[in-house]
Structure formats: C-alpha cells, structure tokens
Known about the structure:
Blueprint (H helix, E strand, L loop, with lengths): L12 H19 L6 H103 L7 H4 L4 H17 L6 H29 L2 H11 L5 H13 L9 H18 L3 H24 L6 H29 L8 H15 L1 H23 L11 H17 L16 H21 L5 H30 L14 H27 L5 H41 L2 H4 L13 H20 L3 H22 L6 H22 L2 H15 L8 H5 L9 H8 L10 H4 L2
Helix pairs in contact: 1-2, 4-5, 5-6, 5-7, 8-9, 8-10, 9-11, 10-11, 12-14, 12-15, 14-15, 14-16, 15-16, 15-17, 16-17, 17-19, 17-20, 19-21, 20-22, 21-22
Organism: Elysia marginata
Keywords: Coiled coil, Exocytosis, Transport
Protein name: Exocyst complex component 5
Amino acid sequence: MSVEELEQEPFSVHEFVERLAWKTMGATARNTPEEFDPVILHTAFEKMIRDLKDKNNQVQRKIDKLTTECKEEEKRHWNRVAELQKKNQSLYTGFQTLDERISYVATKVVYLGDQLEGVNTPRARAVEAQRLMHYLGEFLTDEPLTSPVLVDPFQLHLTADVIQKLHLIALELPVGGRFDIARQKIAEKYDAVERELIGEFRLGQQAGNKRQMRKITNLLQHFKSYGQCIDVFITECQKGAFKHNSIFDDIVPLCVETNKLAKAVFSNSDTVMTKLVQNLFQGSIQGHVASRLENQSDPEVYLNNLYDLYIRTTKLTVELSKACVEHEFKLGDSTFLNKLTRSIFAQHLDRYIEVELQSLRSQFTMVLQHYYEKKDHVKRQIQTGGIYELKRDIQARIGTVTKAGPTIENFGGETFLSQEVAINILQDTRNAFKRCSTLSSQSDLASNAIKIFEVLVQYLVLEHIDYAVELGIQGIPLAEPKVEPEIFFFDVVSQANTLFHLFEKQFTDSFIPLVMSSQHHGFCMKRKRELREAMEGKIDNGLDRSINAIIGWVRYIFATEQKKADFRPESEDAPMHLLSPAAAKVSKFMHGQVKEIKNSLDGKNVDIVLGTLGQRYHRLTYEHLTQFSYNSIGAMLVICDVNEYRKLVKEEMCVPLVTQLFESLHALCNLLVVVPENIKVVSSGEQLATLDDSVIQNFVQLRADYRTARISTRLR
C-alpha cells in the first residue's frame, strides 16, 4: 500500500488504516484468531508512519519553495505599480496644462463668435428684409407672380415660410389704397399654401411618412389652420380602426397606436391625444349611444341598453386612464374623461329614475294582472277595521238565531300567493337596484333607491302578500260554525312568510348597501320593521280566528254529539264503547288540524299556534266534562275519551305545557273511578299536587256516588 492514496478524494483516515491492516494481515488472520500476529501489524504501521513523515517533509519543502517564489513575484508587482503611479502623475500634470490651454482657446473662440454674431445678425436681418420686400413687391403689382419660391410647387415648404412672414407683414400694412390688393393676394396665397400643406400632410400620413408629417406640422404651427391639420390627423387615424362588433373594444388600441405616431409627428402630442379622445367620445361613442337609445318605446329594453352602454363607457374610461400611465400621455385634467361620459349620457341620466319607476310599475302591474287573470280572480276592495269586525260579529250572532250565518268565501283553498310572481318582481327590482347604483349620481343614489324600494313594497308586499293575507282572513270560518270548517289560512301564512323572507333578503342584499352611508338608513330599517309588524299583526289576527273556528267546531261537536247518557248509562249491561261518538269526531278533526298546522307553519310559529290551540282545547274539554255526572261505567268511558285527547296532544302537538294540562285532566278523571276509600290518597298524587283543592273538590263532585259514599267527608 503506497502513500499516493493520500492524494485521492475523498480521503478517509479510518478507511486508510483499515485497508493497511487488511493488506498486512490478509483475510486468513481475520477469520482465524490463532494466526493473528501483532508484530507484523506493528512493523507495517511503523513503516507507513516513516513513509508518511517522508511525504510530509517533501510537501513542506514544496510549500517553502512556493512561498519564496510568491514573495519575489509580489515584490516585482509592487515595483511595477510604483512605476505606473509615477507615469500617471506625469500624465495628470500634462492633462491639467492641456485643459488650461483649451479653456483659454475656447474663451477666445466665444469672444470671436460674439463679435461675428454682432456683425452678422443685422446683416442677415437686412438680407431677409430685402428678400421679403422683393416678394412683397410682386404682390403690389398687377402682374402674375414670377419668383420660383412663390410659384414652384416643389418648393412648397420654402413658399410656406415666406407666405407666413408676408401674412404677418400684411396685417401691419395700412388699410386702403394699393395695399388692399396686396393684402388680398397674400391672403389668397396664404390659404392656398395651407390647403396644399394639409393635403401633403394627409398624403404623408396615408403613406406612413413620419418625417414629412413632422416637417409639415412644424410649418403649420405658425399657420391658422394648425388645428385643421390635427383634425385631418385624427380623421385619418380612425379610418379602418373599428374592426370589432363593439366600438368600445377598438378605442384603447387605437389611442395607444395613435399616441406613438403623435409623439413622432407633433410637438404637443398630449393636446392631439386629448382632442382625439374628445372626438371619439363626442363622435363615434355618442353616435353609437344615440342609435342604441333612440327607441324608448320599451322602457325595459331602453334601461338595459342604457345600463350596458354606461358600464362599457365607464370601463373604457378606466382602461384609457391605465393606458395613459403605461404609454406616457396625458388627457386633459383628472375629470376630463368623466366629463365626456357625463356629456354623452346627461339627458338620459337626468330622467333615468322616472323611466325606471315607470317601467317597474308597468311590469309589476302586468305580472299581477296576468296572475289574477290566470286564477280567474278580480281584485276587490278589502274591508278592514273595527266597523267591519263589528258587522261580521253581528252577522254571526244573527246567523246563530236564524240558523243561516253570513257567507264565507274561501276561494276553494286558493291562497293567491305565488313564488313565481314574487321571484319575477324581485328579479326586476334587483336589476333596478343594480342600474340605480350605477346610473344615479352619488347625491341622488339613496333617494332613488328608496323610490324603487317603495315600488317594490307597493306591488309585492301590499298588493300581493298583504292582499292575500287579507283575503285569507276573510275566508276563515266564523267562531261558531254549524258545519265542519275548512281552514286554509295556515297555507296562506306559510306562503306569505316565505315570500316576505325573500323580500327581506333582497332588502338586505340589494337595497341596504345603497343607503347604508346616507341619513335615510334609519328610516329604511324602520319602514321594513313596520311592514313586518303589520303583516305579523294580521297573521296573528288570522291565526287567532282560525283557532277560534277550530275550538268553535269542537264545542259544536260536544254540544250536539255528547249525551248525558254517554257517561251515566242506566244499565250496567249496556254495550261498552272504547270512545264516545263525540270524542271520536273531535279526535279525528283535531288530528287533521294539527297536521295541517305542522305542515304549513315552521319554527316557533308551530309551537306558539299549537300551544294556544292546545290550551283552549284543554279549557273547552275541561268545561265540557264538568257538565256531566259519572257513574262507574261512564267514568271508564270518559277516561278513554280523555286518554284519546291526551294521546293526540302528546304525540302530535308535542307542547310540554299542553301535555301537562291533559295529564292533569286525565288524573282528575281517574278520581271518578277510584274507590271512595282511596280518593284522599290519589288526590294527593304527583300529577294533582299542583292543582287547587277546589278544582279537585269540584271534579270529584261529578261522581254519581258523591253523596251516598260521603266522599266530601273523606277528602277533609
């Protein structure tokens, strides 16, 4: 093993020692411990250590040699640096001397230039004046112009320079005499030169000759028709520029390309770009808007077109503002684009809200009219208030006597509420709010939104939901019906709540953001709360009437179907029924009403209505049972009846208070069958513990054996 392995990369000391030991001892010594000889391994290590020392001495000598060479090279380098510094100092001194000499000569040259200019300027002015006087002389004669500068079409630029100066001179000439003819001829030549220059400018633009266009604009800057040159430039730029179906898609690219050309041709390119944009807005865009909004026979189409065009125009102004920054050109002041937009749409925006309200009223009227026509219903004037209520009660009393009550019209269960109608109205209103937020000025936004909201309230809440609730209330049977009542008001309540929730959602999502930051926000919240409270008041009134009708029919069943003999049969051999006929009818009727209530109402409304109905049902049942006397068989029958009532209340109404009331009533009925000796114990039970002693005493008195069994004595 050689020391050359030390120069291999990567080098590991551990692996080097292992390889040395392995090569020295061989594989046999590693497998057979008896053949391991440490002396051989020690000798090999000593030899390798000597080799490593020799290698170290060789490397150290090489390092010393390289160090010596490096120091000598460094010394030579510093010597060269010192020589270069001396040369640089010498050159710097020479440069200063030369700079002083150049400054001296330049001062002399400037002085001589000033002297020459002082002599040459008056001479040049005199020559120019002489030349202009010569050309003016030609205009003072009746002879045709002969100077090549004035008649040669190939010297048009020079002609323009001369004519422009002669035009200024002609303005200073005295009026009258021979100068009038000269002034007229100069003016005619001036106009002709202008036309020719503009013609050449147009040709140069069509050919893409920027150099020629630049020369002509420099000349025309001093002419009256410079603005006309800009107009020609703008007109030519627009030729063939509109390639898309929508004019708005082509304007920004047109402005960007035109700006590049305007910067190369005009010295006042920003003014040119401002005039171009103004021309586009007041020309192409305004014409497009006028053609789209010309037909106003259909307000909805007109409003949609107005909104679409205004959105596109405002989007265009944003893109133009961004292009101004990216391509470094300026368009008037900060309000320039907004003023252009306003000027285009001013006449439409000023009367926007009138058209919007007219359109909404027309659409909503048509939607409601179509719906009621489809239902074959003619809207009627709803009578409400105390006088109507009094009249209705008097008719009901008269009906009780004459057996013919007032006619109740329930329209066969039709609720006259439609989600489709509500969604159509809300969708149109949502679009109106969206248009209002865009087309209304900031000062008019809140008031315009309120006007739209009031239209929504009028047609959806008042003329549809409120009208249907009022019809539903009038269709509720009287409190003392003679036939089984058909109550459809619960369906009305369910649908009315659904539609009003949709109304409230749009109120929150679309309307409130428009008035949030205005002084009208509190008024709007109060208005919505009043609408909700008014509808809830009418619904509560209708629900109360519906419950009264239900209880009235139960009372009628009890009065007509329940016989005294049911609970006090004359013979114990009479057939035993599980339920009295009255209880069977009442349970069947109440089951249907509870099911209808649970299907129609939701949330807390179900618990409130069922709780009210259950408490009145319990009171009526209790009062009904206290009208009879019970023997043992009758007591068993009344317990079966009450158990049926309790089952209905517990399993279907699921109102804890009502359930507890019927549990107590059932416990009271048990007192009717308890042997006299146990009445005292049973009456002290848990279910009767909350009842007043007088209630228990009065109920026990209904027993047929109350006196004979001396029960009153046992209760003391």
